[in-house]
Amino acid sequence: MVKKPWLERLSEMAQLSDEPLPGVPLVEIVGNCRVLIEGHGRITQYSCQEICVKVRRGSICVKGCALEVRCMSQQKLIITGKISGVELCQEER
Amino acid sequence: MRMWSVPGAMVEVELISANVEETLEKITQSGIELKQIHFLDGLTVRFLLSGRDWGCLQKRQDDGTKVRLLSRHDRYWAFRALWHRKVLVGGLSLLTLLVLFLPTRVLFVRVDGNVSLPDQKILEAAAECGISFGASRRQVRSENMKNKLLQLLPQLRWAGVNTEGCVAVISVREGEILEEPVRQEGVSSIVAERDGVILSCIATRGDLKCIPGQAVQAGEVLISGYTDCGLTVTGTKAEGEIYAQTSRQLTMFAPEQCLVRCSSGKSTRKFSLIFGKKRINFYKGSGIWDTSCVKIESEYHLTLPGGFQLPVTLVMQCMTDWSVAEGTVSQEDAFLCDAAARYLQRTMVAGSIQSSDQQLYRSDGCLVLAGEYACCEMIGISQQEIGAYNGKTS
């Protein structure tokens, strides 16, 4: 059985499992034209077809065409373009 | 335009770094927000950031990282770039002034409610009152305008002037003008103007003295102004219609030889433009030809929709050269028969030609028309009676 981190267990006990925890990435997809990533790290791959962003314990790859990073700040990163897929690659611990 | 999509003062920066991804992460972690990030290659990236953050970014440049300002994208720089497009700026300024100025002016005038009085007359009167192209809308609304209009046009019973946008609407109501009754003065009879046989007679006032079929002579009383009432005689102005069969003889002459105008085919057009009282001629000289010519002048006024005439007129003069030559007039060209009929018709008070017997011949270099005409015409004319004013001379 996989042991959950203590923060997740605490949120489950407090019945806050729906809320994002600090440091945990949050991805919002608006239609097929905009992806918002909160809690992002650095951009690891950038091209018009694919943009990969490092997040905590993994990376998020956005695939599509005419992709571009519209905004990048400490809190959020917005990718726009014609999005065909969003993939979460989680690192094994 | 790009400047409207950028909310504040933004600068476009190019960043060259050995590790672009890490540098970007460091920049964003320091609180700088980057927008429209474009990776040109593995080492170069372009992005937008606010002008305030640009100073912070310059201060924290690391070794191996190079940042370069490419352009500024704020309103100040956008407007400064507009300064190089003087025609556009001038056009926009003019447009702004027109937008502010035009709504305060009257551009069109419309007349409403008139029945018999023509629009043109009302517009002319309105122009005298100050309601014309370019007049101020405040003036148009004044009460003085209404009073002036009513003074200038006595046919109007009421006038009101309103403005709808740039259109001045003149609403009028016409008054009924009662014709003054003709005063009956004196005593007059209707007498025969010429000899004839009475065909019909109608007397609306006075004493009828003739009957249909009766032959009358010129000067004979047909309707008398005096009526015998037994003990007294009343005098009045006789009125009525007496139609009679008359016979007229007419001889008309026309020259056999005459001068005929011949055009040489030479024709010239000259144009002028009149602005108010100023006339601009688009030709040299006075416009007077040495030779005889036919001059036809046409004026074309510039008119706005609604019938208001602007003080701009195009004048076109068409001048055709001509000369005279002797020619013989044919019997058909003389039009003597038509001229005789027209002459007779003009001499009648009322009536028509029933039949005619005409002869056309040449005599002593003239064309002669001799004719006898049977006419049905009104022969009664009014004649003032002597002594009708009870001793006063008439």
Describe this structure in words.
The complex is a heterodimer of chains A (about 90) and B (about 400). Chain A has about 90 residues and is mainly β. Chain A has one helix at about 5-15; strands at about 25-30, 35-40, 40-45, 50-55, 60-70, 75-90. Chain A has a six-stranded antiparallel β-sheet, with no helix packed on it. In chain A, strand 4 and strand 5 (about 60-70) form a beta hairpin. The mean pLDDT of chain A is about 85. Chain B has helices spanning about 1-5, 20-30, 50-60, 75-80, 85-100, 120-130, 135-140, 145-150, 330-335, 335-345; strands at about 10-15, 35-40, 45-50, 65-75, 110, 155-165, 165-175, 190, 195-205, 205-210, 215, 220-225, 225-230, 235, 240-255, 255-275, 280, 295-305, 310-330, 350-365, 365-380, 380-385. In chain B, the strands form six sheets. A five-stranded antiparallel β-sheet of chain B has the order 11-9-15-21-20, with helices on one face. A four-stranded antiparallel β-sheet of chain B has the order 2-3-1-4. In chain B, helix 6 (about 120-130) crosses helix 8. Chain B is elongated and about 140 Å long. Chains A and B meet through strand 3 and strand 5 of A and helix 2 and strand 2 of B.
Key features of this structure:
heterodimer; A: 93 residues; mainly beta; 6-stranded antiparallel beta sheet; 1 helix; B: 394 residues; 4-stranded antiparallel beta sheet; 10 helices; 22% helix; disordered N terminus; disordered C terminus
**Unreliable stretches of chain B, pLDDT < 50, 5 or more residues?**
1-6, 388-394
Mean pLDDT of chain B: 83
Supply the number of helical segments of chain A: 1
How much strand of chain B? over 45%
Q: Could you tell me the number of beta strands of chain B?
A: 22
Largest sheet of chain A: 6 strands, antiparallel
Residue fraction in strands of chain A: over 45%
Protein topology:
The complex is a heterodimer of chains A (93) and B (394).
Chain A: H1 6-13, E1 26-30, E2 34-38, E3 40-46, E4 50-55, E5 58-72, E6 76-90
Antiparallel strand pairs in A: 1-2, 2-6, 3-4, 4-5, 5-6
Chain B: H1 2-5, E1 10-17, H2 20-29, E2 34-39, E3 44-50, H3 51-59, E4 65-73, H4 75-82, H5 86-101, E5 108-112, H6 119-129, H7 137-140, H8 143-152, E6 156-164, E7 167-174, E8 188-192, E9 196-205, E10 207-208, E11 215-216, E12 221-224, E13 226-228, E14 233-235, E15 239-255, E16 257-275, E17 278-281, E18 293-303, E19 309-328, H9 331-334, H10 336-347, E20 351-363, E21 366-378, E22 380-384
Parallel strand pairs in B: 5-7
Antiparallel strand pairs in B: 1-3, 1-4, 2-3, 6-7, 8-12, 8-22, 9-11, 9-15, 10-12, 13-14, 15-21, 16-17, 16-19, 18-19, 20-21
Helix pairs in contact in B: 6-8
